[in-house]
UniProtKB/TrEMBL annotation:
It comes from Bradyrhizobium arachidis. It comes from the Bacteria. This is Na+-dependent transporter. The lineage of its organism: Bacteria, Pseudomonadati, Pseudomonadota, Alphaproteobacteria, Hyphomicrobiales. InterPro entries: Na+/solute_symporter_sf. Keywords: Membrane, Transmembrane, Transmembrane helix. The chain crosses the membrane at residues 47-69, 76-99, 105-124, 136-161, 173-195, 207-224, 236-259, 279-300.
């Protein structure tokens, strides 16, 4: 019976391993599949919150506790990076919108930008950084600290800048975020206890495959109407797409420049994390009760989020190789 069960599980396990081995290529392919097959989005949209919980659980489950504790012993850099992503980014977005009157001219788009700024980084950021050959440990600890703070910082900025534009009160938003994150952490802790950290590490590749499939479910759920939007209003839709790329790469470049003193390889890893905002958590916290323009903007942000790791991998590898060469040269001078 056990051999039969093993043989039945072998095929899906090999399939998941193959998907996980595709790395950034599979992450990039997700958005094109989501747009090309709209019925998947219509089918999966009711399960959007469960997809978000699944992504959160996998990320919490894979946290390297030793690396986490190691970085906590050097808190200055982590505190600075956390402050930038949880306070600096939403404050910058809100002040620019307020100064230019953008919040009144395009309220739906402003809501999307503000929710993006208030969101914590994507839980998949450390995995994506690792896929690109970057050091993911600093990303990991900053992700954990900023995620822990986001229910409180999101409540603050929602009260300051959004008010009646939001379908829920700022306090309700913060409580929903807290419940979503704590519930996912509890689920991940139970899985980690039952399976063991060693088994989770041993099955890293099929777990990567599961992660990519859930990413496809999430992207399909929020991108199911993109093809229709392109056909009915191509100029506006393409404009929103260009804006999403501009915001993404602006956050990436600003963060990399701000933290360049720690080395461009580590600064790029932080830039990737800050640019990859967890909009799914905001969708779940607002129960998807958002204007059509906000939904469209969220859908368009999936393009830079999924394509940039593939696009930036050659740059990341050059920076990593340069950092390794510098480290080797420094070691040679000390011997």
């Amino acid at each position: 019976m056990s051999s039969l069960l093993k043989s039945l599980l072998a095929v899906p396990l090999r399939a998941l391993t193959w998907i996980g081995d595709q790395g950034t290529r599979a992450v990039a392919a997700v958005v094109f599949i989501a747009v090309a097959v709209p019925p998947i989005g219509a089918l999966l949209r009711p399960y959007l919150t469960w997809a978000i919980v699944g992504l959160l659980c996998i990320s919490f489950m894979r946290v390297d506790l030793a690396a986490l504790y190691g970085h906590l012993r050097r808190p200055a850099l982590v505190a600075t990076a956390t402050a930038w992503t949880t306070l600096g980014v939403p404050l910058l977005v809100g002040l620019i919108a307020w100064a230019t009157g953008f919040d009144n001219h395009a309220p739906g788009l402003f809501l999307g930008l503000m929710l993006q700024g208030m969101a914590s980084p994507m839980m998949a950021s450390p995995a994506l950084a690792a896929m690109m050959g970057l050091d993911a440990t600093l990303v990991l600890i900053t992700l954990v600290t900023s995620t822990a703070l986001v229910p409180f910082t999101a409540t603050l900025f929602a009260g300051l800048f959004l008010g009646a534009k939001l379908s829920v009160t700022p306090l309700a938003l913060g409580l929903k975020l807290l419940g979503l994150l704590s519930g996912s952490l509890l689920g991940a802790t139970i899985i980690r206890r039952l399976a063991g950290a060693e088994a989770i590490q041993r099955h890293k590749r099929p777990i990567d495959g599961i992660n990519i499939i859930i990413l496809l479910a999430f992207a399909s759920a929020i991108m199911g109407d993109v093809a229709h939007d392109v056909l009915t209003d191509p100029v506006f839709t393409i404009g929103i797409a260009l804006l999403s790329f501009a915001i993404y790469f602006t956050l990436l470049a600003m963060t990399t420049l701000i933290f360049r003193r720690i080395g461009y390889e580590r600064a790029l890893a932080l830039g990737l994390m800050v640019a990859q905002r967890n909009l799914g958590v905001m969708l779940a916290a607002t129960s998807g009760a958002l204007p059509a323009t906000t939904w469209l903007y969220f859908a368009m942000t999936q393009f830079p989020i999924h394509l940039s790791p593939y696009m930036l991998t050659p740059i990341a590898r050059r920076l990593t190789a340069r950092a390794d060469d510098a480290g080797t040269a420094a070691a040679g001078r000390t011997t």
